[in-house]
Amino acid sequence: MGLLIKRFTITAVVLLVAALMLGQGNLIIYGWSDYIPDEVIEVFSQEYGIRVTYDTYDSNETMFAKLKAGARGYDLAMPSADYTSIMIKEEMLLTIDKSLVPNLANIDPNVIEKMYYDPNNIFSIPYMVGTTGIAVNTKYIKSYPRSWKIFELPQLQGKMTMLDDMREVFGAALKYLGYSVNTTDVNELQEAKNLILNWKRNIAKFDNELFAKGIISGEFWVVHGYGENIFYEATEEELKDIDFFIPFEGSTMWIDSFVILKGSNNVENAHLFIDFILRPEIAAMISDYLLLPSPNVPARELMEEEPVYTFEEMENTELIKDLGPDLRLYNTLWNEIRFGL
User: What are the CA-CA distances from residue 152 to residues 129, 168, 173, 180, 223 (Å)?
Assistant: First the structure.
């Protein structure tokens, strides 16, 4: 998910040391917190007699660093597009045996087409697609632009937050300026940095963890974040005061995928799980839980909940890409923004 902050604990996280039981009947997943409903894992376990251990991370960077440092025993991970690309280049993944994943045919071809980093799904199978946007608590603000420009408004100083995520914040600024979220043009990035510094004067903090609670409680009136987190945290009554929108200038897009890690001891079970997740009824259950649009075409007819936004509303979003060595430009400027370095 890109950086995808997810919801409460879905399943008890068993210590990895206790979970490294090899052989058939086991599957060890390294995934985003609260990303797969308990019920889904339970149904899979009962159907196949496979014990699933779900260990979690809170960012792509954390996941990647742990695996590169030598963590072993994991079968599946769930990186966002840019980190899937990096892991392919670093030769950290096994190839997918698509004969074992026939339900891949259920995925929207438009989603597959966007996976430029893995044509033909050799190494990755898409799980969810989404974006970030802005939430406003209308109890406190009645008139506002549905634009990234909202972060420039001095009357809202100290009542706003933005994600503590370099690519998401730069993506917002670059979209507002009319540039690509993946630009490597030094002048465009410097312009974006200066804009973010202006926004920084008005926001209370960069925050990945408490933005949903903050907007609902009224501690903050405007937050940049993931709509699904906010909608999950809020009651139906509280949601009446929350306006979540994708700014008209556009935003970032993320695609989170399943990948099978080199060193997996349960490759067949990993394929079984991926194919199970791609069943329409299972995919619909997951999208209803996450309140996200489903990339699984037949699942869309089975969904019972209205997602926070639709694929049509994501039309002006842009996928965050792996920039290779050019990412250093972003890192340097982000350190200057965050720490004045």
Answer: 29, 17, 11, 21, 13
How open is the CA angle 100-298-57, to the nearest 5 degrees?
A: 65
**Can you say whether the dihedral through the CA atoms of 112, 113, 115, 121 is positive or negative?**
positive
Please give the DSSP secondary-structure letter assigned to residue 122.
Answer: S
Beta bridge partners, 160, equal 222
Domain spanning 16-129+255-308, CATH class: alpha beta
Query: What angle do helix axes 327-339 and 166-177 make, rounded to 10 degrees?
Result: 100
pLDDT band at 21 (very low <50, low <70, confident <90, very high): very low
The C-alpha atoms of residue 155 and residue 202 are separated, in whole angstroms, by 9
Q: Give every CB contact of residue 76 below 8 A, 6+ residues apart in sequence.
A: 27, 28, 29, 30, 31, 258, 259, 260, 261, 264, 270, 273, 274
Q: Do domains 16-129+255-308 and 131-252+317-339 have the same CATH topology?
A: yes
Structure tokens, 164: 């503590």
CATH fold label, 131-252+317-339: D-Maltodextrin-Binding Protein; domain 2 (3.40.190)
Q: Rounded to whole angstroms, how far apart are CA atoms 261 and 52?
A: 16
Q: What is the CA radius of gyration of the chain?
A: 20
- Residue identified by tokens 């990303």 is 35
Q: Can you give the pTM of this predicted structure?
A: 0.84
Please enumerate in sequence order all residues whose Cβ is within 8 A of that of 275, keeping only pairs 6 or more positions apart, or say none: 100, 101, 102, 103, 104
pLDDT of residue 24: 67
User: Mind listing the pLDDT tens digit for each residue in 144-202?
Assistant: 999 999 999 999 999 999 999 999 999 999 999 999 999 999 999 999 999 999 999 99
The residue type found at 328 is R
What residues contact 167, with CB distance under 8 A and at least 6 apart? 2, 3, 82, 181, 252, 320, 330
With beta carbons less than 8 A apart as the criterion, state whether 182 and 208 touch. no
Return the pLDDT at 131: 96
Q: Using 50, 70 and 90 to split pLDDT, how confident is the model at 13? A: very low
